[in-house]
Design goal:
Layout lengths: L1 E4 L5 E3 L17 H7 L5 E6 L2 E6 L1 H14 L6 E4 L4 H16 L4 H13 L4 H7 L4 H9 L5 H8 L5 H7 L4 H12 L10 H7 L20 E3 L6 E3 L2 H21 L5 E3 L11 E3 L7 E6 L5 E9 H13 L21 H21 L1 H14 L16 H8 L2 H14 L15 H11 L4 H15 L5 H9 L12 H5 L4 H12 L1 H6 L5 H13 L57
Parallel strand pairs: 2-4, 3-5, 8-10
Antiparallel strand pairs: 1-5, 3-4, 6-7, 9-11, 10-11
Length: about 600
């Protein structure tokens, strides 16, 4: 910053000053010293619209204006002129100076923090700048959930900090009800920690919150003495119908063109400060919140702060390549596959196809020739590394029945080559290749084809289109050597995906009835169906991700992820004699 003496006529209060909306302050305590000594501590200002906006030093500014009215003229005050660092830097400077002088009211801090969030600061950034914890910053930001009348009570000191914090958890309708109680001296409103009990207590679910037609509810309805309010007596039946209606609402929103609809867990609050308003055409999503008392709120056209920043970067680059993995760029309201889950599926599908290739050397031989001609996949003559993203996936594939059987079969196939123990073909050289070739010339077609099948299967790239086409042609049934294990379920984390899996296993009615349940609960229902536990009928289920051709979970039609032109015209049966390979045994 540079220190400049700027005429008072060229100074104004900046919109970035945290107290710019407040009335002129009381300056009687500092006016005598300024009248006697002048401005000793420079104001902080920045260029704004041909003038200089006072970011910090508002009381000194008003004291000078008062003094000018008294004496007619004042010396130009010293000002520390900020460089152009954006509104965020100005707001920070204002807030820091005020915090150093006198405590800012929580609502004042809230407005300043919201301004910083809009300027791109994160909660962590704000906490670090103002020596606060992230929890304190979030508490200030959460004050934005209060109705204006509640904010007035808080600013005036009519309610304490704890009461205000608890009211941030309340919906607008609940806050209005609380205000009515507050205004009624005979009833009185709950305060402090009692507000949480008031918000969450009881099961008095009003009929006004139902998304479904009341005629569909076959249980008892209890009315008050005046018949003005009525409640559901059978809350279990209410939640079954309400969850079905929520699911139908989600489907309608998706059909209307929303890219994603996220149903939040019961009781989970939607905080606007954590999100950015975004229209449907730019990828905005819909968030549905459900309270413990059953009422539903729809927040349409929002993205999380992180998603909004990602979108902004994409627009700056103008073009962005589509993510290869099916879980990337897919809305949270549709079933998605994470990168870890894709890795898990690729390896298990890979293992199943490799084992099937061994059983049909003729197909494998043609696949090997295709690799030689097109140099596709891993055809630098190296086995697929079966790279695993986590230790759990690594352990899962290592213990896979298909993997164990494959390794045993290859060990037997390579035995006639009399290779060194644990030879992985990685140390190839010309002399060694000649030796292996000479040994191959002494083997029968059947032995060579068996070795070729194993070698081709070893070099088949996990996750490649060749796995899909070969698996489909060979009618690979993954269930023969694979069942959903603990790792499989651990890798399913998205709520929409878990619910889609539940629908695939237990049916749409069960999935709709449990749509607002925790993901852990929905996963347990799936596992109960697969094992026949807890009174569930046992289901023989293979996820579409593991079928050949693969299909999406819950898809009405199975669509292969990879197709091969002319594949339908390929011969369905091949023998060694069909290959045109003569007996290559060399007789000494």
């Amino acid at each position: 910053m540079n220190i400049e003496h700027i005429p008072l006529s060229k100074l104004k209060i900046s919109a970035c000053n945290m107290r710019h909306r407040e009335p002129p302050p009381d300056v009687s305590d500092i006016l005598p010293s300024i009248r006697k000594l002048g401005i000793l501590l420079p104001l902080i200002a920045r260029p704004e619209d041909g003038k200089f906006g006072v970011v910090a030093g508002r009381r000194r500014f008003f004291a000078l204006k008062t003094l000018k009215q008294e004496v007619g003229d004042v010396d130009d005050p010293p000002c520390a002129v900020m460089e152009d660092g954006g509104d965020a830097a100005a707001v920070e400077a204002s807030l820091l100076e005020n915090l150093a002088r006198r405590s800012a009211e929580p609502m004042t801090e809230h407005l300043a923090f919201v301004r910083l969030i809009k300027e791109g600061e994160t909660v962590e950034d704000i906490a670090a700048t103002f020596a606060m914890t992230t929890a304190q910053v979030k508490q200030r930001l959460a004050l934005g959930n209060l109705l204006p009348k509640v904010r007035e009570l808080y600013t005036a000191g009519d309610i304490d900090d704890q009461t205000a914090r608890q009211l941030t958890l309340a919906r607008a309708s609940q806050q209005r009800k609380w205000l009515r109680l507050f205004a009624d001296p005979q009833q009185g409103a709950p305060r402090g920690t009692y507000i949480r009990q008031w918000l969450l207590g009881g099961q008095d679910i009003s009929t006004t919150v139902a998304l479904f037609a009341l005629k569909d509810y076959t249980g008892q309805i209890v009315e008050d003495l005046f018949g003005k309010e009525s409640y559901f007596a059978d809350t279990d039946l209410f939640w079954t119908l309400q969850n079905g209606a929520i699911a139908a609402k989600r489907d309608a929103l998706l059909k209307a063109g929303w890219i994603a609809v996220e149903i939040m867990e019961v009781g989970q609050h939607f905080s606007q400060w954590e999100h950015v308003k975004m229209p449907k055409k730019k990828g905005g999503k819909v968030f549905i919140t459900v309270s413990h008392k059953g009422d539903v709120e729809i927040h349409d056209g929002w993205l999380t702060q992180k998603e909004a920043r990602k979108l902004a970067k994409a627009e700056e680059r103008e073009a962005r390549k589509q993510e290869k993995l099916s879980g990337s760029g897919v809305s949270a309201g549709l079933p998605t596959i994470t990168q870890a889950m894709q890795n898990y599926l690729d390896l298990h599908r890979h293992a199943a196809v490799r084992l099937a290739l061994i059983a049909d050397p003729a197909v494998t031989f043609r696949l090997a020739v295709a690799h030689m001609i097109a140099a596709s996949g891993n055809w630098s003559i190296k086995a697929d590394g079966q790279s695993s993203r986590t230790d759990a996936i690594r352990a899962s594939i290592a213990n896979s029945p298909a993997q164990v059987a494959f390794e045993k079969e290859c060990g037997e196939a390579y035995a006639p080559l009399e290779l060194p123990r644990n030879d992985d073909f990685a140390l190839a050289n010309e002399d060694r290749a000649v030796a292996v070739f000479a040994r191959l010339l002494t083997l029968s077609n059947e032995e060579v084809l068996r070795i070729a099948a194993c070698r081709m299967a070893e070099t088949l790239a996990a996750g490649s289109g060749a796995v899909e086409v070969a698996g489909t042609h060979l009618n690979v049934d993954a269930r023969t050597h694979w069942q959903p294990d603990e790792t499989f379920f651990d890798l399913i984390r998205d709520r929409a995906t878990v619910n889609a899996v539940l629908a695939d296993v237990a049916g749409h009615n069960v999935a709709r009835a449990n749509i607002a349940e925790k993901t852990k609960t929905q996963k347990q229902i799936v596992q109960d169906c697969l094992t026949g536990a807890n009174g569930r009928a046992k289901v023989d289920w293979t996820p579409g991700w593991m079928t050949f051709p693969s299909r999406s979970i819950g898809a009405d039609l199975a669509e292969p992820t990879c197709s091969l032109k002319g594949a339908d015209d390929a011969p369905t049966e091949m023998t060694a004699s069909d290959n045109g390979v003569e007996d290559m045994r060399v007789v000494a």
